[in-house]
Amino acid sequence: MEAVLVLEDGTILKGKGFGAEKEVFGELVFTTVMAGYVEVLTDPSYKGQIVMMTYPLEGNYGVKKDWFESDGIKAEGFVVREVTSKALDDFLKEYDIPGIQDIDTRFLTRKIRDKGVVKSCLKVAEEISDDEISELLERVRKYKDISDIDLVPLVSTKEPKTYKVENPKARCVLIDCGVKLNIIRSLVKRNCEVIQVPYNTKYDEILEYNPDFVLISNGPGDPARLKEVIETVKKLIGEIPITGICLGNQLLALAFGGETYKMKFGHRGGNQPVKNLETEKVYITSQNHGFAVKEESLPDDVEVSFINLNDMTVEGIRHKDLPIFSVQFHPEARPGPHDTMFLFDEMIKLKDRK
């Protein structure tokens, strides 16, 4: 099959298609992880995006459902240098997702690093004419920016779900903005009962569950679009311990009155160094975000707890008096690194300050 990747700046790359025969539009981003392509594809935070792997060989170890971070592939499309197994091809076909291989992913990565993320179109078909490519370029230039698309409703749970444990240490209400399953697994493993609720669950409904703490999950898109969540979190501040991961960190900052901004090309990979400003310890973390918190916008009673050592951006915040903290990186990272798994223990300890 033929495949073409069309960027809004006019760049056109032709390659070999795999996965589903179809066309998709989305923001083209890259991730530097060397393993974990199943986890990447099924991560709800990639909704609305076409994901490119910088590691050149994908598919070496097959596909297992145990590795899923959701109920299926959430990325819009997949861009790789070379597919090495039929299992990965079949995986994309099963979820109707197109992929392109045999293109220069290093060139594309450098372009995104220099120019920033770009709107793009990926098409896979038996034949693709020059006229079709010209039409795709026109359409991709008219396609909405990711900040203009409501993505969280597409990946959040529709109904509450409860993950029960015997003799729970704590009960967490998880506001699901596109949660990765390993966040839930990490809490349940620590004997914490988790109640997963839709992103637009109201303040009083959350309190009716009598949680020990509330966790705001990761998810796709621009945090500033989630007005309902921000208002709910505002009401919860001071009423109950709160924590957040990734998008949850940004939403908490917005609820405090802070601001967020879109990054040039974001942080996506499993090798991002962050520094704990209190202990001065450095951890290697997994990250997947295209927006960040403006440090100077935070109120006086909220402080930065972690920073990224590559670009000094905010990687975590905490309230100086209230039992509230959040991180921008992913402590639950699969397949790794696991440096910051201890943060789930810190979340559970929040109940002691309820």
UniProtKB/TrEMBL annotation:
EC number from the UniProt entry: 6.3.5.5
GO biological process, one term: 'de novo' UMP biosynthetic process
Enzyme class: ligase
Catalytic activity: hydrogencarbonate + L-glutamine + 2 ATP + H2O = carbamoyl phosphate + L-glutamate + 2 ADP + phosphate + 2 H(+); L-glutamine + H2O = L-glutamate + NH4(+)
Alphabetized PROSITE patterns for the sequence: GATASE_TYPE_1
Keywords: Amino-acid biosynthesis, Arginine biosynthesis, ATP-binding, Glutamine amidotransferase, Ligase, Nucleotide-binding, Pyrimidine biosynthesis
Annotated Carbamoyl-phosphate synthase small subunit N-terminal domain residues: 1-123
Residue sites binding L-glutamine per the record: S45, G219, G221, L247, Q250, N288, G290, F291
Alphabetized CDD domains for the sequence: GATase1_CPSase
Pathway: Pyrimidine metabolism; UMP biosynthesis via de novo pathway; (S)-dihydroorotate from bicarbonate: step 1/3; Amino-acid biosynthesis; L-arginine biosynthesis; carbamoyl phosphate from bicarbonate: step 1/1
Annotated segments matching region CPSase: 1-170
SMART domains registered for this protein in UniProt: CPSase_sm_chain
One matching Pfam family: GATase
InterPro entries named among the record's database cross-references: Anth_synth/Amidotransfase, CarbamoylP_synth_ssu, CarbamoylP_synth_ssu_N, CarbP_synth_ssu_N_sf, Class_I_gatase-like, CPSase_GATase1, GATASE
Domain of life, per lineage: Archaea
MF term (GO), any: ATP binding
Family: Belongs to the CarA family.
Role noted for this protein: Small subunit of the glutamine-dependent carbamoyl phosphate synthetase (CPSase). CPSase catalyzes the formation of carbamoyl phosphate from the ammonia moiety of glutamine, carbonate, and phosphate donated by ATP, constituting the first step of 2 biosynthetic pathways, one leading to arginine and/or urea and the other to pyrimidine nucleotides. The small subunit (glutamine amidotransferase) binds and cleaves glutamine to supply the large subunit with the substrate ammonia.
Oligomer status and interactors: Composed of two chains; the small (or glutamine) chain promotes the hydrolysis of glutamine to ammonia, which is used by the large (or ammonia) chain to synthesize carbamoyl phosphate. Tetramer of heterodimers (alpha,beta)4.
Full protein name: Carbamoyl phosphate synthase small chain
